[in-house]
Design a protein that fits this description.
2 domains, 50% helix, 15 strands, two-stranded antiparallel ribbon, seven-stranded parallel beta sheet, disordered C terminus, single chain, Rossmann fold, alpha/beta
């Protein structure tokens, strides 16, 4: 049986990679509207795999029961083939996932070939069930069974939830713009840029998307013009507006000196190139809407932070200040510049919330540190609307806080997110672990308190469609209306002071 177990282990590990990297990571299937049938197939397959793992590790099915076990394996094969058809019908599989599926199919065929003689030996025995033990292999099979059951149950629940998930039409998000605008978007294939492009294209505007990877641009709403280098844009090209969202993720790893340099260069280099482009265009755009972040303010404690608030020093402040200063140089060419200081952007497709959903779905979520820190947030669709508002509002310039008027404490946010998912939020992540694991990144991004208010947006008439966190989370998760969580007071929370 050693060969059988070796092939099963390879199959399980490859399958786990497929689930975690493709289904949970890049494709985010549990949160994709219309993926209900595929999720139901995954649930059935995972639960069947649990029976197979336990059987191979601990039980021998003899006589007629051996044929029942063979029927179980055949059912799993049918489900897998059905799943392949469903995947091709509902989504475009990336090449890597297709190759992995081919490897899984070959390995599974090898397993069936090697296991068939053992199955025939079982069938030759009198009908019954016999316990068996294969040492460490039995325990490995038990671990695999315990691993797939939670995902099977979660996918079954997610398949039912998929019916409630909806994605509002994108075109109305660009309603503030005059018709037929010509817009250059950097960072177009990112979490925010993708939805912005969908809104602009849906509303009939012409979009030019800057991306380093043209293959990613193939999944953008069409039609778009794709460029990989700003130097390729001719001087006579006309843009009415430029939206600059390009930049390496600040949460992709600890802030080592090399990472800090890479994060900063990714923003400043693109922004400098945009300013150079503006300088040589024969017809200059009216406005540059450039990204920034509320990290500009650093740790603000209980203070309400408007655009004129005094910041505290830190890497995020230095990064945002340099980014905004580079974008402001476009003003030398007569272009209005609005630097959006963006808060925590919420939607199920990615961003910070996308990274939290898996942990909270398995009941592993909860407050971070003391839970007292303020989180300033905005729904992704409202951010797209704010970008379009910034393009259309002639008096909006300089730093602009892109957040709702309803910041929330971290503990209350964790409580409401867990409630939306029907899970507890009992696992607090201590500040000492955040600092030890993530260093300054955890300190500035997870533990810092930023109670930011959108003064300029409000003064120019912008109103969020999702002003309250309860409304936003209900729309994102497909949950019924969420009751407001009791406000967490500092005295009611565990005391973990921020330096």
């Amino acid at each position: 049986m050693t060969a059988v177990f070796s092939l099963v282990i390879v199959q399980a590990l490859l399958g786990a990679f497929d689930i975690l990297f493709h289904h949970e990571g890049t494709e985010r299937l549990p949160w994709r509207p219309g993926a209900g049938r595929e999720l139901a197939l995954h649930a059935a397959r995972n639960l069947l795999y649990a029976v197979v793992f336990v059987s191979l590790g601990w039980v021998a099915w003899h006589g007629l029961l051996a044929w029942a076990f063979a029927a179980l394996i055949l059912t799993e094969i049918v489900i897998t083939l059905w799943d392949f058809v469903e995947e091709d019908r509902t989504r475009r599989l990336p090449p890597g996932e297709r190759v992995l599926h081919g490897v899984l199919a070959i390995n599974y065929g090898a397993f069936l070939t090697v296991f068939a003689p053992h199955l025939m030996d079982w069938a030759a025995q009198p009908t019954g069930v016999a316990a068996q033990y294969h040492g460490v292999f039995s325990w490995v099979m038990a671990v695999f069974a315990l691993g797939v059951v939670p995902f099977g149950v979660r996918d079954l629940l997610a398949s039912r939830r998929a019916r409630r998930l909806t994605t509002p039409a994108a075109a109305p998000l660009a309603a503030a713009l005059p018709p037929r605008q010509r817009v250059l978007v950097t960072g177009a294939t990112g979490f925010i840029g993708r939805r912005l492009v969908e809104a602009l294209v849906g509303a009939g505007h012409h979009v030019t998307a800057l991306t380093r990877d043209p293959r990613k641009a193939e999944t953008l709403a069409q039609p778009v013009t794709v460029v990989t280098d700003l130097d390729h844009i001719p001087d006579h090209t006309v843009f009415d507006a430029i939206v600059n969202l390009a930049g390496e993720s600040v949460v992709a790893g600890r802030w080592t000196p090399a990472r800090r340099d890479s994060i900063q260069r990714s923003r400043l280099a693109t922004t400098a190139a945009l300013v150079n482009l503006i300088g040589r265009l024969e017809h200059r755009p009216a406005v540059l809407v450039s990204g920034s972040a509320i990290g500009f303010y650093g740790h603000g404690g209980e203070r309400k932070l408007d655009e004129a608030a005094t910041p505290r020093p830190g890497f995020t402040h230095d990064l945002c200040a340099a980014w905004e200063a580079e974008a402001a140089r476009a003003g030398d060419h007569g272009v209005r510049v609005a630097a959006l200081r963006i808060g925590l952007v919420l939607d199920r497709d990615g961003g910070a919330l996308g990274g939290m959903l898996l942990a909270f779905e398995f009941g592993l979520g909860g407050p971070i540190g003391s839970g007292r820190q303020w989180m300033s947030w905005i729904h992704r669709d409202d951010l797209v609307r704010a970008i379009c508002h910034a393009i259309a509002a002639p008096d909006l310039q300089g730093p602009v806080n892109a957040v709702t008027t309803d910041p929330i404490r971290n503990a209350d946010f964790a409580c409401l997110l867990a409630k939306a998912l029907g899970r507890p939020a009992a696992l607090r992540l201590p500040a000492v672990i955040v600092r030890a694991g993530l260093g300054q990144m955890g300190e500035e991004l997870l533990l810092a308190s930023q109670r930011v208010v959108p003064t300029k947006l409000s003064e120019t008439g912008f109103v969020c469609r999702y002003p309250r966190i309860e409304t936003a989370l209900a729309a994102i998760t497909g949950a019924p209306r969420i009751a407001t969580a009791p406000q967490a007071s500092p005295s009611a929370m565990k005391s973990e002071t921020h330096p």
